[in-house]
Amino acid sequence: MSRLFVILLGAFGTALAQTNPSTIPGAEEQKVVLADARVHALQHESSLPDFVCTQTTRRFESASAHNWQPIDVIVERLTYFEHREVYEVLTLNGYPANIAHERLYGASSSGEFGSLMKAIFLPETETEFEWHDWSVLRGKTTQVYAYRVRASQSKYHIAVPERSLDFVAAYHGFIFIDNKDHFVYRVTLHADGIPSNFPIQDVEISLDYDYTRIGEADYLLPLQFELSSREGYRLVKNDVAYGNYQKFLAASVVTFGSADARNEGRVK
């Protein structure tokens, strides 16, 4: 099994639940919606407080997309401090685990707290947006826009470190923007142009956000995350859920890794 990193500086194709509105937003309204979403996305990380939460990752593998077999269940304590993420593995398959997050083999994920959404909206990314459809997401009416990022502007890396392989991929997907507050509540991503001889193929991501109370305020935070990829004939999938968000206490101790690992979303 190769050990891989997918670095997200900056989520699965999703069926859209139709609302059947009578009109499509006009060009000016689309500009306003995207402009508001851009402001929210670029300010999102800086607005988050220090907190801790539980990340539960259920990993699966399959020879086909219709017969997933469980691999393991990983429960981690995720500390978000000074806009950096630190992971502590608590249990593996229900048993206490004494293993570093970085040493988990197979697919695991980090970096969902704003970097993916931010990368799409950074001006230098020159993302192309196009109106796609309406959708209802957890009771909210959302405007769905297709987007595309060219390889020349991408900072999305798919890497296999032990083989010294690193590929910068173009990517496309959908963003689901609430029709009222213009916040992004879902991002999907599909990596494009991966060479046929590259060991990792068909990388897809889906990331959902929702409001969660921390202390005395509500913040837009990851709710669930799904990642899938293919290695040869083997398909792998991660279903990740976030919960038990709590305010980070000043008495807690956080240790950061190397500078290169800071603020990078990655999949291993």
Entry summary:
The protein has helices spanning 27-47, 115-121; strands at residues 5-8, 51-62, 69-81, 84-92, 95-96, 109-110, 128-137, 140-149, 156-160, 165-168, 170-178, 184-192, 201-214, 217-231, 234-247, 266-267. The chain is mainly β and 268 residues long. The protein has one domain (5-13, 48-244).
Q: Rg, please?
A: 18 Å
Number of strands: 16
Q: How many domains make up the 3D coordinates?
A: 1
Shape: globular
Strand order of the largest sheet: 5-4-3-2-15-14-13-12-11-8-7
Strand content: over 45%
| First-to-last CA distance | 11 Å
Top keywords for this entry?
mainly beta, eleven-stranded antiparallel sheet, 2 helices, 16 strands, 10% helix, disordered C terminus
Give an overview of the whole structure.
β14 (217-231) and β15 form a beta hairpin. The longest helix has 21 residues, at 27-47. This protein has one domain. The chain is globular, with a radius of gyration of 18 Å. By secondary structure, the protein is mostly beta strands. The strands form three sheets. It has an eleven-stranded antiparallel beta sheet, with helices on one face. α1 packs across α2 (115-121). Helix content is 10%, strand content 50%. The protein has two helices and 16 strands. Mean pLDDT is 84; it is low at 1-20 and 256-268.
Layout of helices and strands:
Layout: E1 5-8, H1 27-47, E2 51-62, E3 69-81, E4 84-92, E5 95-96, E6 109-110, H2 115-121, E7 128-137, E8 140-149, E9 156-160, E10 165-168, E11 170-178, E12 184-192, E13 201-214, E14 217-231, E15 234-247, E16 266-267
Antiparallel strand pairs: 1-9, 2-3, 2-15, 3-4, 4-5, 6-16, 7-8, 8-11, 9-10, 11-12, 12-13, 13-14, 14-15
Helix pairs in contact: 1-2
